[in-house]
Amino acid sequence: MTLALGRRDGVPLDVWVWAAVRYRRSPRTMLPAPAAEVPAWAPDTAPPEGPVPGLLRLPTDAIGVGGAVDVDGGAVALVAATTVNVGLRTGAEQAALVAGYGRWLNGVTGPVQVVVSTRRVDLAAAADRLLDSAAGLPSPALADAAAEHAEFLLDVAEQRDPLWRTVTVACTAPGGRGAAVEALRRAEHAAAALAALGGRTRVLDGPAVAAVLAAAVDPFAPVDASWPRALPQQPVTGPGAGPGAGPGAGPARTAGGAAVAR
User: In terms of Cα–Cα distance, which of 215, 181, 189 is closest to 64?
Assistant: First the structure.
């Protein structure tokens, strides 16, 4: 009787119990591909000690060049937004900002998720990219200024632990023909509505979305999402390893590591 009538956070207790049973019986270790044998690094969880490793199924199927992410049952487009300092505004300005944010929420026609995350800033990688760019500057004065700024970033990274906060808005669209186009259209609408509040917004393209997802699944990686990644289906070429091989020689490889024909 208690399971049938009791509720917590608006969810019936029998649903909570069924979720707990499924969690208890589900694998604790996930693998990217089915394995006939348990890997050496995995704990010995053979029955009856526990469930064997299961197959890791990610909701993302593909990332388009335009930034639309194919997921189970639809498409998702991401919008990067900056924050707005409300504390420094007057009461009337605060009310206007809240009203504008409310108008955007009332105009949303599908599920939207606003993700606010904080992580460490990789200033060393930014300094390295700055030094690489400084080498190609036409002006020696600009190159020296860029090198000095890179040294400053390295000093800050060594002496402090800087953090940054990111705001990402995920706009979804139901599956079917034109799901990617609809998701991007909703993302453009969200970017325009949020930019009217005084912040900066941008609909992320495919490489930027790949960078955001890579940083999200591995928050302890030494690199951040401030530079784009190659898409999984995009060929990545490089000089061949053989003697006398010129630029572009050798097989092309996709970002996932598979060799493809030229």
Answer: 181
Residue-wise pLDDT for 211-237, tens only, equals: 888 888 776 665 667 767 788 777 777
Q: Which residues contact 250 (CB under 8 A, 6 or more apart)?
A: 237, 238, 239, 240, 241, 242
% pLDDT > 90, the chain: 28
**262 vs 248: CA distance, rounded Å:** 10
Taking the C-alpha atoms of residue 246 and residue 210, their distance in angstroms, rounded to an integer, is: 30
Give 109's DSSP letter. Answer: -
What one-character DSSP code corresponds to residue 53? P
Residue 62 has pLDDT above 60, yes or no: yes
Q: CA-CA distance, 51 to 24, in Å (whole number)? A: 9
Q: How many CA atoms lie within 13 A of 207 on its CB side?
A: 9
Contact 201, 86 (CB under 8 A): no
pLDDT-derived band of residue 134, with 50, 70 and 90 as boundaries? Answer: confident
CA angle 7, 10, 12 (to 5 degrees): 40
Identify whether the C-beta of residue 14 lies closer than 8 Å to the C-beta of residue 3: yes
